[in-house]
Amino acid sequence: MMGIADLIPGISGGTIALITNIYEELIHSINSISLGSFINLKNKGIKYFWKEINGKFLFPVFFGIIFSVFFFSKIISWLLINEPVSLWSFFFAITISSFYYFYEKIGDIKFLHYFLIFIGAVFSLIFTISINLNISPNYFYIFISGFIAITAMILPGISGSYLLLILGVYPLIIKSLNDLQSFIFKFNSEIFINSFNILLLFFLGAIVGLKIMSKYISKILYKYPKKTLSFLLGLMIGSVHKLWPWQNNIDSSDLLMFKNKSIVLPNKYDGPPELIKAFVFMVLGSILFFTLSRLKKFK
User: Fold this and answer.
1) How far apart are CA 178 and CA 12, in angstroms?
2) CA 94 → CA 86, 99, 124, distances in Å?
C-alpha cells in the first residue's frame, strides 16, 4: 500500500504508514541502520545484524514497497488517466478518515497542538500550490530528486510523487519504471541501460535522503511525539485538496502533470462526475481505513 501511494501524486507513503500503525517503528528502524551495523554483520554475523536493524520488520515493508512500485506503475498510470474519479475518491476517503488516527494519538489537544496543526497546514498548502520548477533533468538532478522525494514520502501529508511533479521528473521516473517492466517481455538493451541508470541514481539519492531524514524525524518523534503528530496532521490537512476527485486539466497536453489542475465541484467537472462510483469508492476507502484501524489493536 505504501508503494502504491508513493506512485500517486497527492498521497504520501508516510500517510499509509501512519494509518497502518507502523510509522514510528519504520522511522526508528531505518535510523538504527548505520556503518556500525555493517561492521557488526562482518564481526558478529547475520543473525545479530538482522536483529539489530529489525530486519523481520524492515525487509517485508521494503520488499512490499519495491514490489508495488515496480509492478503497479503501469496500472496506476492507467488509472490516473482513465479512472481518476474512482482513484482519487478512494484515497481522499482514506486520508480524511485518517484524521481520526491523529486525534486518537494526540489525545488531549491543547492550544500549542492547534497552533502546530495550523502551521503545518499553511506550510503544506503554500508548498502544494505555489512552487513550480521547469528544469531539464540530468543525472545529478535525478539523484537530488530522489533525495528530496524520499524525504516527502516518509512525511505524512507531503506526497513524494507530487514533489517529483514539481521538480519535473515524475513522467521520467514513471516512464523508466514502465520501460524496465517492458524489458522483462521484450529485450531492448539501449532502453534498459538508460532506464536502469536513471532509476539507480534516483534510488541512491533516495537511500541517502532516507537515512539522513529518518535520523532527525526519529529524534523529534521520540522527544516530542504529540507535537510532531500535530504538525504532521497539519501537513495532511493542507495537502488534502490535491486528492479532491473532481479536478479539471488546465494544460491538456500532458494528463500526468497533476500540478496543472483546478479543483471544481462535480457539476463543473469536464468529464462525467460519476457521483455514485465516487461515493462507492469513498465508502470503500473509509471501510479499509477503519478495518486497518481496528485490526492494529488486536496485534
Assistant:
1) 21
2) 13, 9, 18
Q: What residues pair up with 261 in beta bridges, in sequence order?
A: 249
For 228-231, the CB contacts below 8 A with 24+ separation are: 229/102, 229/105, 229/106, 230/102, 230/106, 230/109, 230/112, 230/113, 230/114, 230/116, 230/117, 230/120, 231/116, 231/117, 231/119, 231/120
Q: Kindly give, in sequence order, each residue whose CB lies less than 8 Å from that of residue 191, ignoring residues fewer than 6 positions away.
A: 179, 182, 183
- Give backbone dihedrals phi and psi of 138, rounded to 5 degrees, phi first: -110, 180
The predicted structure's pLDDT at residue 250: 62
pLDDT tens-digit map of 205-243: 888 888 888 778 778 877 887 888 888 788 778 878 877
Task: Look up residue 187 and give its amino acid.
Answer: F
- Determine how many CB atoms are found less than 10 A away from the CB of residue 120: 24
- Closest of 133, 165, 139 to residue 152, by C-alpha: 165
Q: What confidence score (pLDDT) does residue 107 get?
A: 75
More confident residue, 198 or 132: 198
Q: Check: pTM over 0.85? Answer yes or no.
A: no
Q: Where are the alpha helices (DSSP H) in the chain?
A: 2-7, 13-19, 23-31, 35-44, 46-52, 55-82, 84-106, 111-130, 139-153, 160-167, 170-185, 189-223, 225-239, 275-295
* Residue whose cell numbers read 494526540: 106
